[in-house]
Amino acid sequence: MSIYLSRIYTKAGDQGQTALVGGKQVSKAAPRIEAYGTVDELNAVLGLVRKANRDEAGPDEARARLDTILERAQNELFNLGSLLATLPEDLSDKQPRIAARHVEALEKDIDELNENLPPLRSFTLPGGGWVSSYLHLARTVCRRAERIVVHLASVETVDAEAIRYLNRLSDALYVMGRWNVRQRGEQEPLWTPEKT
After folding, report:
1. Which CATH superfamily is domain 25-88+95-115+123-183 in?
2. What is the pLDDT of residues 99-127, one digit of tens each?
3. Helix-helix angle 160-183:60-84, to 10 degrees
4. What is the DSSP code (8-state) at residue 26?
5. CB-count burial class (<10 Å; 0-12, 13-18, 19+) for 17
6. Cα–Cα dist 158/169, whole Å
7. If pLDDT is split at 50, 70 and 90, which confidence band does 84 have?
8. Where are the domains of the chain?
């Protein structure tokens, strides 16, 4: 799939319309645009996580492990955004897909990172250091992207792997947040319910 961008602005969207891959014009408020726009937002948050991970002190091996998973996820999210920006009838054979193997890779990451984590006795509050805080932010944006793609799937055709992928990625981001605080020697914030 070759990409060539010579101009950044076209003024074509000034009336609130945009083109999907394949050329069909739709409203910028359409569910499909909301879906791939939120996936793009999630990808931007993962960029913040990766930057914080590089800048914040911590064991090199743990930082490298986290970055490897997040870099892979960013590329997969770009593939997912491309799919969501394309109507099923306009999909190209050369277009990257989200497949079961991507979901399985996330499950493997979750199992490996979760293996030595203590069981939870309360809910985790977003926090810890910058990296874990950004991971929790990414998790919440991922859940929103999942809800939006589920809504899109109720009105248009969406590959089921897209929903499964976002569901598993949000789980992976949660586990990464828990794993990260321990790797960096930080305190995992836990919810303390108010006693009445």
Report:
1. Cobalamin adenosyltransferase-like (1.20.1200.10)
2. 999 999 999 999 999 999 988 888 888 88
3. 160
4. E
5. middle
6. 18
7. very high
8. 25-88+95-115+123-183
